[in-house]
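Side project, low priority. Logging it here so it doesn't get lost.
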Amino acid sequence: MEIQIPTRNKVNFAPPRSFGTTLKSHLKETFFPDDPLRQFRNEKSGVGIVKKALQYFVPIFEWLPNYNLRLFRFDVLSGITITFLAIPQGISYAKLGSIPPIIGLYSSFVPPLIYAVFGNSKHLAVGTVAACSLIIGHTIGEKVSAVDDPTLYLNLVFTTTFFTGIFQTLMGLLRLGILVDFLSHSTITGFMGGTATLICFQQLKGIFGLKHFTTKTDVVSVIRAVLHYRDEWKWQSAVVGIIFLIFLQFTRFLEGIAIGRSFAIMNNEQVDGNKEIIAFGLMNIVGSFTSCYLTTGPFSKTAVNFNAGCKTAMSNVVMSICMMLTLLFLAPLFSYTPLVALSAIIASAMLGLINYEEIYHLFKVDKFDFLICMAAFFGVAFISMDYGLIMSIGLALLRALVYVARPATCRLGKIPDSNLFRDSEQYPGLTNVPGVLALQLGSPIYFANANYIRERIIRWVRDEEDISNAKDSVVEHVLLDLSGVTSIDTTGIETLIEIRKLLDAKNIKIAIINPRLEVMEKMIRSHFVDKIGKDSIFLSIEDAVESILFSTQKNYQVLV
């Protein structure tokens, strides 16, 4: 009988790329994943390059030349709308940081002008936020009293704002926005919820009309202070505060529906995170010299800005002009704003930051993500903001390390009547090729997980032997699918060599399936390819199985 030689796809064993080429590729993917220089590729003239460079680093030159009256009408409306939100927020959030209310209003005057020039988002509205205000008040308040030495306290606030702007600008210029990726969604959800809870409890001082209060920020200390000074409670103040809070909450379940619907569309906007960090840094640097404290892009104000129909960053300019007029003509009137009203405004805004649905979603989908979220929530609320973040980020990094140290592996089986091989646990009923154990590795192979991968592969072989209840090994070939292995280090290469030796001792042959470019280059440089043989590396499991069956059939005919 004539033996049919299988058609085998050729594996690329091209010489490895140079170190410079590899380093350039890695740096580009690490610091420039969004390919910010793509707009300069087809530009030939020097004038065009300068023009595009100016538009890239100063975005106002990109949208201002095409600006018209139709866009301005939308931006005027949205700018006026967010001004009405910026005034109570500016006063209330400044109170959180023990900062004079007028400084809170200044912070919505100068920084928005800077952002309009350097900002990359069309819809982001600039202003102060509660979390930053609380952190500033808590951190500086531990060293200097805002009551005993208000001048020094305020100077330290401006200095903090200046250095924050410096750090933000440097992070953006050095393309270090990647560091933000280490703040998981679970951590942010828990941190915001814990901060909001903490701030809400602190507003009990204003709602109950207390004159004395604790300087500590944790919930336990706040509750203890409220109960300790209960002889200062004013029921009239409490009634007004609760009624005002209920009113604010009711007017906010009306606003939230429209905002949620609008933001589903807003998420399609492409924003360069590093350029945003630079814009925030510049506006905080300039703001620190013009009696402004730390500003950023509050979610609530941005949501209102978008919902009001803003088209460009001109809405921030409109808000700045409106705030200037407010400071010139209306600022004295705000000195009569009742403390209980400010407390109710802050509490209402903070209640909207506790995302109950998202927390429940985390609990249902991923219990460890829920644990990370709760670590931030309770850590911030009951210990401190620093420890809450440290606990949550620590758990998130621990999880990432576990993923690296214990990567996913699975046994592959063949789907009947097809050439597809899939996870046999995910798809029960798959068929196995006799004598062949196909395994898939799903992560980079590093020193941290190399021992685990070696032990896991050997355990897969032992499990197959136990299932067969045979004294002799039924596994004759082990196929390692490396499609999901994006990189490998020298320890990983040595591990593959050790696995090959261990399997050779059992008369089991090993084959490598579809190694990625970087993995193949490491294998060639380390001479692993020479040791295992090029005929033991395949593009697909199907090719490897066909080669094994052909070899088995050929050996059988030779014996006959």
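Brief comment: Residues 69-96 form the longest helix (28 residues).
Revisit when time allows.
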